Amino acid sequence: MAQLLGAALLVGSGAIALVAWQRWAKQRRFKSLRSLPSPPQHWLLGNIPQLLGAVKNRQLFQILFDWSKEFGPKYVYWVGYPVLVLSQPKLIDSTIVQGTRDGSLVRTGQSQRAWNDLMGPIMIGQDGAEWQWRRKAWNPEFSSGGVSQYFALVDRACHQTVTQLQATPPGEPVPMDPLFVELTMRVIAALVLGIPIAPSQPSPEGPPLEIEPTYDAMAVLTYRFLRMAVGEKAWKKYLPTQASRDYWAARNYLETFLRSRLDLALALRDGDPAALEKASPLFQQSMLVKIAAKEPHYTRATLLPEIVEMLIAGTDTTAHTLSFAVGELALNPSVFQQAQATVDRVFNEQDTMTLASFKQLSYLQGVVKETLRLYSVASGTTSLQATRNIVINGVALPAGARVFWSTIGAGRDPETYPQPDKFLPDRWLTEDRQTPAPPMIDFGSGPHRCLGEHLAMLESTLMLAYLLRHFDWELVNGRSSVENLKQNLLIYPVDRMPVYLHPRSRQATPQRSKL
Fold first, then answer.
1. Helix, strand, coil % (nearest 5) of the chain?
2. pTM above 0.85, yes or no
3. Angle of helix 287-294 versus helix 176-193 axis, rounded to 10
4. What is the pLDDT of residues 315-352, one digit of tens each?
5. SS (H, E, C) 8-51
6. pLDDT in tens, 26-55
């Protein structure tokens, strides 16, 4: 018995010694970062409890922003390893571009696992050759030229939203965010899946697009990603909890919605004549069919999560940006008047919107960019890891340390954006080569820059043009609509941005472009 006890004590003391040595080695390895400002930590768990609490309260963006204000543009938080957080636009941009170019920074394994665990391996969760062939397949569809061919489709979707708004009873508040979610989801579903923009039109390839349950399912998946990204373990999805049941129900809903369309696209790739008879012309022109046809690497198992990724990425990002733009326009009358005058001038020249006249809406594009600066809806959704010892702006970053950034904090950097709390679209419109426009990091930087940037700018600018042409508006809840924010994966207005709309009856009704 004594021998067993002695052996147990020996094993126990050895384990304690091993843990202590590992802790000492880690502290020594990351010693260079100990001198940087850091939030107060739990003695064992570091800053994990604060971050998980922020995610639970849907305030991750806020805690990163608050820490940036308190600790400066470079600080470190600890989650078992150090995370260097940056909040200066030029530094963020140069760090990402240089690090991804020379291979010193790669996407963290934790964030990749979190993305790939949504429904399977997706482009944003890959690197190396796997990422390259996926990105190469999708790039042409989302290039400026590729998106231009969908102008008429986006125009029709925006016009459909205006028609919904015109049917609103006078004096009734209108929550704009759900309408924008419907707009952006219908656009991305039409482009990627060939589902008609008009809900009354049949979609013979599969189940109809139901906005609310589809959106709810995507929200469950993205919220789970955020929890995993800050430390929740993947195996928790197998526990008999409500969160686990919601996760599996969301996955099943989206798979059921997409299954028949995926199978039909692959059958078209295989040259099945029966498939050609089942597929509508719109479906045959969809990105799903084009990608399946030109990229044999894709199978049903890999296309399914990729399409879910496209639906998620193409919905909330632009929808919430539009909501915040509507809010800021209401709060800034002079900007509203200038934007409206720009739109009226374009419509008065042609009485309709075309791709050529759209290019005259540079001031509205400035409105969108200024909105993104203040409300970077995707703030705090990815991170990088150092593959070797590097130096970032004088900070020695050891291999294994992470780099993160607060784009909300960066958007309010006074050195980069003078008068950062003011809504000034003109800051993006300079043509003076001596004073170029400030950096625009809200679509990312480097080779992983947002695939849907051109589509997002097209949708948001065109939708704002139609709103300004047809309506004046005011916020129901005033400034609180742009101050009371939360974060699922993306940042959104808690009150859904309700407005009182006032139709501009004196304006001629623009003609709708034809598909």
1. 60, 10, 30
2. yes
3. 40
4. 999 999 999 999 999 999 999 999 999 999 999 988 78
5. HHHHHHHHHHHHHHHHHHHHHHCHHHCCCCCCCCECCCECHHHH
6. 556 798 899 999 999 999 999 999 999 999
